[in-house]
Amino acid sequence: MDIAPALAWPVLGCLAAHVLGQLSYPKARVQPGKLTGKVSRVRDLLPRPLAWTVTVIFGLSVAQVVWTSTLPGFAPRPYWSRPDGGGGYATFGGEGRIPGVQLAMYLGGALFALVLGTLAVLLLISRRRPVDGLAFGLDALLRTITMNRLLRTVATVASGLAAIAGNHAARTDPATGPANWFNPAGALNLGVLLLMLFWSPPRLTGAQPRRGRAANREEPVMRLSVSIGAVMGLAAFVPVPAAILVPGAVTGHPALLVAVSAAAVLAVVSLGELLVHRNYGATDEPRHWPRQPVPPGLACTLVAAATVLMAAVFLVAWRQVELGVEQSWPVTAWASAGVLPVSGLPLLLARRRSSVRGTVPGLDAALRAITVHRVVRTLAAFFAVQAGVLLIGAGPKLHSASPLGPEPWDFAWQAAPGVGAVLAAAGVVVAVIPVGGTAQRGTSGPPPAQDLQPVDLRREHPNAL
Q1: Membrane spanning segments where (predicted)?
Q2: Contact 239, 261 (CB under 8 A)
Q3: Quick check: 371 and 292 in contact, CB under 8 A?
Q4: Which residues lie closer than 8 Å to 274 by C-beta, 6 or more apart?
């Protein structure tokens, strides 16, 4: 069944997003408690009313899943009708439903993983290093705000799992009467969604930044670079209108959809380099290439993702040829190969464009490093998601086409969709790794002390793409 991958996306996705947010904060060099002698605990930071509300929602979700596990399954019936006694006709038949215990196993596992993951993220929030430049009280308030957002998110996911169980319970036996689509758990899910939407977190206030010319010395080209990062996030959804305008062009092949998304992101990076060259390029300035354009960790991630993709394509191709089933690996191979030359264009433009004249030392090298970082990060995410999509699509078909009887690869193809979901989720996480710190590696020295600006604590920390 495809129930496990479908449930893994919202559960693991919401937890991974909050973990990434905690890891992307600018951290101080001291451990929690070393600066003030105080250590934040989960129970001291937890917003109590919201925590109790979320606990009740989880309890109701567990009760709904337990009740669903007691329900029997129904066999599907062909549609037919008969007079209802009032001059009309009543329709019978339709799809059945699996036994409730089978669905409850998946939903219960998802709820259990959501509870454990929530506790782990709460512990991470309380134990992470303090944010650089924040006092202990403000940092504790920031942790409370993060916990508020986490609890609201997981409460919505938990109520959504209960709504799935309620929808299963609402399905009637097709042999006894017309279908009943009234789902009380679904109505509760909508109420929880609205409640969590309007349950605002505490406000974090701080020093007002200075206004005027002296306060904002940010180069215009840097504002352009940040804007390009925002457009990259929108470009990832280009396959959606493409699938609407040209039905069946990319939807029939998920590998093509992923490739179009990656190519659109890389095209935006290339466009950014052209804009930098046209609007801010200085032909009389020497070109400055960063000493370390790609962090070692990101470079290793790219190599690992490419290796995983090649291994997945090889294994799927070998098994599909052996069983004589429909081959899906050529689309993945050709789509992945087609993205490689597209990724070379922004790298070539970053290497050949004119330098940028600015007041900040090393600005030109930092801009080139940011471009290289974005290209390598996009490729790493693309390879991981492509491998995951291939395993999700090919795994169930290879498992069902395998001969009856125990085989060494039987368990591997049965677990392939779950592995593919993990790879795809990992690719999404890699795609939003911030470029913070890359610019500093490309500069020739630390920035002057007099250029430091106060932090506007009313805005969230930047996570520029």
Answers
A1: 6-25, 45-67, 103-125, 150-169, 181-200, 221-244, 256-276, 297-319, 331-350, 375-395, 415-435
A2: yes
A3: no
A4: 349, 353
- What tokens were used for 314? 């090889």
Task: Summarize pLDDT for 162-181 with one digit per residue, the tens.
Answer: 998 888 887 777 666 655 56
Buried b (16+ CB within 10 A) or exposed e, 251-285: eebbbbbbbbbbbbbbbbbbebbebbbeebbeeee
φ, ψ at 351 (rounded to 5°): -75, -35
* pLDDT bracket for residue 83 (50, 70, 90): low
Q: Which residue has the higher pLDDT, 62 or 358?
A: 62
Longest dimension (CA), the chain: 91
Domain ranges of the chain: 3-198, 220-446
DSSP 8-state assignment for residue 125: H
- CA-to-CA distance for 353 and 425, rounded, in angstroms? 35
CA angle 131, 137, 138 (to 5 degrees): 50
Backbone angles phi, psi at 155, to 5 degrees: -65, -40
Across the strands, what pairs with 77?
A: 94
CA 229 to CA 119: how far, in whole Å? 32
Least confident of 96-100, 196-200, 336-340: 96-100
| Contact criterion met (CB below 8 Å) for 289 and 351 | yes
Class of residue 410 by CB neighbours under 10 A (exposed 0-12, middle 13-18, buried 19+): middle
Check: CB of residue 453 under 8 Å from CB of residue 209.
yes
In this predicted model, what pLDDT tens digit does every residue of 336-386 receive, in sequence order? Answer: 999 999 999 999 988 888 888 766 677 888 888 888 999 999 999 999 999
pTM above 0.90, yes or no: no
Confidence of residue 456 (pLDDT cuts 50, 70, 90): very low
* Secondary structure of 238-273 in HEC code, one letter for each residue: CHHHHHHHCCCCCCCCHHHHHHHHHHHHHHHHHHHH
Rg (CA), the chain: 27
Which tokens go with 327?
């081959």
- Name the residue among 197, 136, 123, 148 with its Cα closest to residue 49: 148
For 26-58, the DSSP string reads PBPSS-TTTTTS----HHHHS-HHHHHHHHHHH
- The pLDDT mean for the chain works out to 78
The encoded tokens of residue 150 equal 């986490």
| d(C-alpha 287, C-alpha 148), whole Å | 47
**CB atoms near residue 243 (< 10 Å):** 16
Distances (CA, A) of 294 to 334, 350, 364: 27, 13, 15
Of residues 322 and 305, more confidently modeled? 305
